[in-house]
Amino acid sequence: MLSRFFLPVTRMPVTLKEFSEKYLGYRKKCPIIFFCRNNGYAISTPTSEQYGGDGIAGKGAGYGLHTIRVDGNDVFAVYNATKAARKLAVENKPVLIEAMTYRLGHHSTSDDSSFYRYVLHDIFYDLQCRKRVLKAFNSAEKEEWAHCHDMFKDVYKLVPNNIDSTLHNELVFREMTNRIKLQRDELDVHVREYKEHYPAHRCLLKSTSL
């Protein structure tokens, strides 16, 4: 399974010995993904003394690796980059992903990042992150919600690759089992009892049971 060949690189892998396995991965055509989280800081050596470029993506290409640089603060961008990397890895094409991000916290419990970077930077980014999260929540609140009954149907629209198609009907349940119907009915009772916390009128699908 590919999950066994996913190698997260938490330290900045730019020295000769730390980068040797990338070259080995290329030479042996290993189905492996090297994931580097580049937050621009290190607990030992600053990036300005580690490499002359703006990251390690160039070094990955130099070693013959398929290389992807992505915004490490963008969840969807990281997801899509990893998904694309996996498609290459299953074809025995090693991939390096460099996620450019910013570390809000300390490197470890024994680290005090205020010694090597401005505290005001952390405060600024922390406030910006909170503003963006609140803005995203406020935007999402304006959208209509899916009906809670959707949790009890359409479990699989497509049969997963690791599941025998003959078992598909048993997994999806053409008709809900008594146990699932009971769970749905219990949910309806809960929603009616605490309806002030569940604005059902905003759901995409209406239901008389609610």
From TrEMBL:
Limits of the Dehydrogenase E1 component domain: 28-117
Enzyme class: oxidoreductase
InterPro entries to which the protein is assigned, alphabetical: Alpha-ketoacid_DH_E1_comp, DH_E1, THDP-binding
Keywords recorded for this protein, A-Z: Oxidoreductase, Thiamine pyrophosphate, Transit peptide
GO biological process: branched-chain amino acid catabolic process
Single GO MF descriptor: branched-chain 2-oxo acid dehydrogenase activity
Annotated Gene3D superfamilies: 3.40.50.970
Cofactor(s) needed: thiamine diphosphate
Swiss-Prot/TrEMBL catalytic activity: N(6)-[(R)-lipoyl]-L-lysyl-[protein] + 3-methyl-2-oxobutanoate + H(+) = N(6)-[(R)-S(8)-2-methylpropanoyldihydrolipoyl]-L-lysyl-[protein] + CO2
The enzyme's E.C. designation: 1.2.4.4
Top-level taxon of origin: Eukaryota
Biological role: The branched-chain alpha-keto dehydrogenase complex catalyzes the overall conversion of alpha-keto acids to acyl-CoA and CO(2). It contains multiple copies of three enzymatic components: branched-chain alpha-keto acid decarboxylase (E1), lipoamide acyltransferase (E2) and lipoamide dehydrogenase (E3).
Family the UniProt entry places it in: Belongs to the BCKDHA family.
Record protein name field: 2-oxoisovalerate dehydrogenase subunit alpha
Species whose genome carries this gene: Angiostrongylus cantonensis (Rat lungworm)
Lineage: Eukaryota, Metazoa, Ecdysozoa, Nematoda, Chromadorea
